[in-house]
Structure of C-type lectin domain-containing protein:
Amino acid sequence: TEQSLHPISPCCCFMTNQLLHYHVIDKEKSWDEAQKYCREEHTDLAAVRSMADMERLSQDLGNKKAWIGLYREAGSSRMWQWSQPEVQFNESQSNWDTGEPNDVETENCGTVRKTLKWVDLSCKDKKPFICYDGENVLTLWIFAEKHWTDAQDFCRDHHTDLISGAEQLKKLNVVETQLSLSNLFSDGLVFIGLFRDAWQWSDGSNSSFRFWNLNYDDEKNENDMKRCSRTWEEALYYCRHHHHDLVTITSLEEQTWVQEKASKALTPYVWTGLRYTCTLGFWFWVSGEVVRFKNWASPEQVNKCDMSGAMETGGEHKWFKKHDEKKFNFICSPS
């Protein structure tokens, strides 16, 4: 389950000792509250370090959702890691191609060329991929092209994991003639178990194990929804610095798109680019668009200074006038 530094959450899980004995606490708490509770009453929020841990935790949870110890702090940098949790990323053993990684379009996943040089790529691209079976056995999926997360899931289901680490990648030189790598690399790039994120475990462990729901898209989150709470002005500056602007809604189609993003937020409202000018007495979009399409919850509300527009994250996703200093998640325009 994904972490918010603030509001809502169902129950929480934690481990009581190094044997990873999980408990499910059937109380609704925010992530911060869950972490505090687990640290006071037990050890910490649950760390999940392998598929075996994941399966054991899933059995304990059943159909429930619960906080675990995975979180990321606002402004934290993304770090390269290997899909196999026991393989630690070592920068001194990296083998990046010239000019890589260049992060052209939020490229959080790693590929390899026929030269065995590494290239960063969007995780949403579809490429062939390489699974690792352990020991000296490599299974190459030449014709199957998948998104990186789907490839990882496939390798974990049918083999061990995506190929990870410099030592495993060196074995590609040995098996090249046997497995006809020229066919594998005909499209130029192949996914390996290299990825980066800014997530970390509450208990301080350095496990790189991740098991995201395949409907979860971290890149889309980074571009559209910021998982931290900010004032309206802070949100505006963030979007303009890292993306384009706070989101503008000028049609029903755009309203539908934004409310889909808003439904994933972890605050009751999300900031939009809607702003009230006290001097001129009207609402406007910071992108310069005129406010023609409207979805106010209560148009009769009195307009005041220092007010901006926020969309409710549930219900009918109506617009509300909120004071600038309130802190909510926010949505940036994609372009």
Remarks:
- The chain has three domains: 11-71, 79-197, 222-331.
- Residues 158 and 165 are 20 Å apart (CA to CA).
